[in-house]
Amino acid sequence: QVQVVESGGGLVQAGGSLRLSCAASGGTFSLYYMGWFRQAPGKEREFVAAITRSGGSTFYADSVKGRFTISRDNAKNTVSLQMNSLKPEDTAVYYCAADRRTIFGSSRAVANYDYWGQGTQVTVSS
Predict the structure, then answer these.
(1) Over the stretch 42-89, which tens digit does the pLDDT of each residue have?
(2) Cα angle at 109 between 1 and 121, to 5 degrees?
(3) What whole-number distance in Å separates Cα of residue 21 and Cα of residue 32?
């Protein structure tokens, strides 16, 4: 099974940028569909972005489309989330997750993902 560890969170002003990274180990990274989720206090965990095994297709929540970009490097076993034009409502704990079953299409449900990181806090001040 794969283990994933997030990094790159922090405090940023509205309009600023952050880049989150997720390092995977313990499995064949290229066999996992990868996603980013977030959870704000008092709210359910929600889908942010996902990328297919090859990196050929990406999917985004409407709330982040045009501002966030997901990418992966299968040679380095990493997946990243570039976040631009950040808003206070983007404040949350961000999680990286691996889905071992999905091959094609959009995988947006929390239940689809088998392995999760511990999360990294992103705080956007107004």
Answers:
(1) 999 999 999 999 999 999 999 999 999 999 999 999 999 999 999 999
(2) 75
(3) 16
Among residues 29, 25, 34, the alpha carbon closest in space to that of 52 is found at 34
For the purposes of burial, counting CB atoms within 10 Å of the CB of 83, is it exposed (0-12), middle (13-18) or buried (19 or more)? buried
What is the spatial distance between Cα 122 and Cα 71, in angstroms, rounded to a whole number?
A: 19
Separation of alpha carbons 80 and 122, rounded Å: 14
Cα angle at 20 between 15 and 24, to 5 degrees? 170
Q: Compute the mean pLDDT over every residue in the chain, rounded to the nearest whole number.
A: 97
